[in-house]
Structures are given as structure tokens and as C-alpha cells.
Specification:
It contains 20 helices and 10 strands. With 435 residues, the chain is α+β, with helices and mostly antiparallel strands. The strands form 3 sheets. Strands 2-1-4-5 form a 4-stranded mixed β-sheet, with no helix packed on it.
Length: 435
């Protein structure tokens, strides 16, 4: 009976897509996600101001098959460690259609996805993927096959994707519409380039399409009895030995390139023990979850960018900027079972701010007087007259006493925020550096 009901729903997919009721739900999702305008310059506010008119026009275009997706606007986002990530921004009206399609298609495909797939799925998260990886590693499979897919979203094979979707979607109109969306083209410097393959990151539908493509990989890994965790195109396979890992790397790479028509980046792919492999910003060291080295370095660089030398911003503004970033960062990386790692970042923030406070005194005698006013003994405050520069002074006992950790927490009503559970690690004097 359930299969029959599902079949009835699937046969009405296109009719539901053409309903202003469903299109309105799609718009609400687009509105929630915000985003910039596409190549037509129409903003979310513009679209919202004439919502009924826009949705009625979309409805008629879909029914009459006059709807034509516009090319996406390409945007380049710099990566933390060099290079750029290519994003595509569809027009608002195209995002509404895609969001509605996702709303309708997700219930069809979601029940059939692998339990080892965690990316862009309802009720699943990056933390769950990392914890699942930890469970597998501590269960006796410490070697990781880390396969990096080169420009995955840019290389998705359109015909294979449509064929894969056709195994569960019988409505050819839906498949045709997805084909039109995939081939809508890309606007680069005012010139439209045809898209023969790939689906641009940044569109509402691309996460679901990527999972449909990589579900074939999940099925193959399960058929071979391999333990794995996948979040979007970030997939780690776990085995017991180096030899087994090398064998799996070879055979799975052949499957990805031969069957899925994707490209494995040989330079970034690796076979290594878990403590040497980064997965979603984390690594598993001796069975314990830690923040990966690259993620820590990126955070240190971010702190430096938020606390530049010679800035015109006042302390309140600086603290607000730090809070906005650090609250989200610490919330994500609170999964680390090495709390001293978060303490390291917090200590670095405070030292950067102390260095700035020292620099603001301009003259050595002004710094000396400030230290005395803040309760530092004259003998300790005499450090102000040494030849040490601002960065070295920021770590001295005198400056730390003048501006203790508590001062930063309470200063100007601002707070360098941290999970309350980590508060007693704020005064970190030692830190274990992990790979």
C-alpha cells in the first residue's frame, strides 16, 4: 500500500511543481537562505514585492513549457589555502523552481540513500559523520583511504545523472526540466558559456543531485563490505592495514573514473593512518577526535585578520567582530576532545588584543603609567622601558596582570564567547600540539 501511495505521489510531481502553493513554499525556502541576485539583477526583496504575480507567471510558464532557466552568474570564492571555489548564482525565479523541485524530489530519493552518507540530508550533520568515523577507527580500522574528487561539481556527467534519476522518477517532464536546468549555461564576464557537464555549487538543487550521483559510489562500497563515511564529495574509507588501504585506493579509483566518469585527484588523495587524515576539519588521534592542524592554522590566520595592526576600529567593534566569528567556530569545533586546542585560539585572541592595547599607549612612559593605574607594581611595570616591542610585551606578566582574562570577558559589555563547559580552560599555559 505504501508503494502504491508513493507511486501516486510520484506521478503528480509535475502537477505539484506547477502549483502556486508548492512554489510559494519553495520561495520561502529561498528567502530563508537569502543570497544575491542572478544575472537579471532581481533581488529577493524585488521578487517578494510582487510575489503573487511572479509565482503565477512561473506557474503558467511551467504548464505551457515556455519556462527557460537563465544562465547562472559565476562567482569565485577564495579558498583558505589558495585557489578558488566556483559558485553559480541562479536568478531568484530559477532558485524558486529548484527549491520546489528539491522539496518534491527529496522524499523520493532520501529513503534509499546509504546510512553512511551524511551530507545535505535532513537530520544529519558533519558532527555525526566525524563521530561515525571515530567509531569505525576505534573498532579496529585505523587506516584511511582518503579519496579526493577533482572539481566534483564541475564534472558531474549529465546523461548518467538523468539516467540514475530515471530509475526512481517515471515522470519524463521532471527529468526534462532537470536537464534544462543542468544545461542552462554560465555567465562569465558577460558571455554565456554552455554547460556540457557539472552542476554549479550554490544552487538549491545541487546538493541533492550530488548525493544522487555519489549514491552509486555508496552502493559499490557497501557491496564490497567496506566501512566508510561520506559527507558530500568528502569520503573516507576505513580498513585494517596499509596493504588493504592501498588495494582499495586502486580499485575504488578505477570505479570512480571508469564507471562514474569523475576524476580522482591523485596528488590530494592519500592512504594513511587516521591521525594523518583530515575529515571535515577534524582528525582522529589515538581514537580521540581533535581539530585538524590546517583548521587550527586557518583559525589563527582569521584571528590575525580580525585584529590587524593600526586599525581605526575601537575595541568594542573589534570584540563584536571576534564574537560573531568565534561563537560559530567554537560551536562547530566543540566536538574536539582536546579542549586545550580551543584554549590556544582563545589565548591567541587575548594576546593579539593585549598587543594592540600596548601599541595604543604610543609612548613608553604612557604604558608605564597605565600599568601602574591597573594595579601592576612599579617593579613589574618597569618592563615598559625595556627594548621589547609590542608583541613581546603582550606576553609579559605585567601586561597580563593589567589586562587579565576576566577583563576581556567583561570589557565594554562585550564577551569573547565560549561554551561554558570550556570556561575553566581559558587560562591555558600549556597546549598539546596535534598533527
Amino acid at each position: 500500500m505504501n508503494d502504491l501511495n508513493q507511486h501516486i505521489e510520484e506521478t503528480r510531481l509535475f502537477e505539484n511543481l506547477c502549483s502556486t502553493l508548492y512554489l510559494n513554499v519553495g520561495f520561502e525556502q529561498v528567502k530563508k537562505n537569502k543570497g544575491k541576485p542572478g544575472i537579471d539583477g532581481v533581488t529577493l526583496a524585488d521578487f517578494d514585492a510582487r510575489l503573487d504575480e511572479e509565482l503565477s507567471r512561473l506557474q503558467q510558464e511551467l504548464i505551457n513549457w515556455t519556462y527557460q532557466p537563465a544562465p547562472v552568474r559565476r562567482v569565485e570564492i577564495p579558498k583558505p589555502h589558495g585557489g578558488v571555489r566556483l559558485l553559480g548564482i541562479p536568478t531568484v525565479r530559477d532558485r524558486v523552481v529548484q527549491a520546489t523541485l528539491k522539496l518534491l524530489l527529496e522524499p523520493v530519493f532520501e529513503p534509499h540513500f546509504s546510512p553512511h552518507s551524511y551530507g545535505f540530508r535532513p537530520g544529519r550533520s558533519q558532527h555525526q559523520a566525524v563521530q561515525a568515523a571515530q567509531t569505525i577507527i576505534t573498532g579496529g580500522k585505523p587506516y584511511v583511504v582518503d579519496i579526493d574528487l577533482s572539481k566534483f561539481f564541475d564534472r558531474i556527467h549529465h546523461d548518467r545523472l538523468i539516467s540514475r534519476m530515471g530509475q526512481r522518477i517515471t515522470d519524463k517532464r521532471i527529468l526534462r526540466l532537470i536537464g534544462l536546468t543542468l544545461r542552462s549555461g554560465i555567465m562569465i564576464n558577460g558571455i554565456v558559456v554552455r554547460s556540457e557537464e557539472g552542476t554549479m555549487q550554490g544552487s538549491p538543487l545541487s546538493p541533492l543531485l550530488s548525493n544522487i550521483v555519489l549514491d552509486e559510489l555508496d552502493t559499490e562500497l557497501e557491496k564490497r563490505g567496506l566501512a566508510f563515511c561520506r559527507f558530500a564529495d568528502d569520503c573516507n574509507i576505513f580498513v585494517k592495514s596499509q596493504k588493504a588501504a592501498e588495494r582499495v585506493m586502486g580499485t575504488i579509483s578505477q570505479f570512480i573514473e571508469g564507471k562514474l566518469k569523475l576524476k580522482v585527484n591523485r596528488e590530494k588523495s592519500q592512504v594513511a593512518r587516521s591521525e594523518k587524515v583530515k575529515f571535515l576539519g577534524f582528525t582522529v588521534v589515538n581514537g580521540t577526535i581533535a581539530i585538524a592542524r590546517k583548521a587550527l592554522q586557518t583559525a589563527m590566520d582569521k584571528v590575525k585578520a580580525l585584529t590587524p595592526r593600526g586599525t581605526h576600529k575601537d575595541l568594542e567593534t573589534t570584540l563584536k567582530s571576534i564574537n560573531q566569528w568565534y561563537e560559530g567556530w567554537a560551536n562547530y569545533y566543540s566536538l574536539s576532545q582536546y579542549p586545550a586546542q580551543l584554549g590556544k585560539i582563545e589565548a591567541h585572541i587575548r594576546r593579539r588584543l593585549r598587543a594592540r592595547l600596548v601599541d595604543q599607549q604610543k609612548r613608553r612612559r604612557f604604558l608605564y603609567r597605565t600599568l601602574i593605574k591597573r594595579g601592576v607594581s612599579p617593579k613589574a611595570a618597569a618592563v615598559a622601558f625595556t627594548h621589547r616591542k609590542r608583541w613581546a610585551l603582550s606576553k609579559t606578566v605585567a601586561v597580563s596582570r593589567a589586562y587579565p582574562n576576566k577583563w576581556f570577558i567583561e570589557a565594554k559589555g562585550q564577551t569573547i564567547r565560549s561554551d561554558q563547559k570550556l570556561a575553566h580552560w581559558f587560562d591555558v599555559t600549556q597546549w598539546v600540539y596535534l598533527t
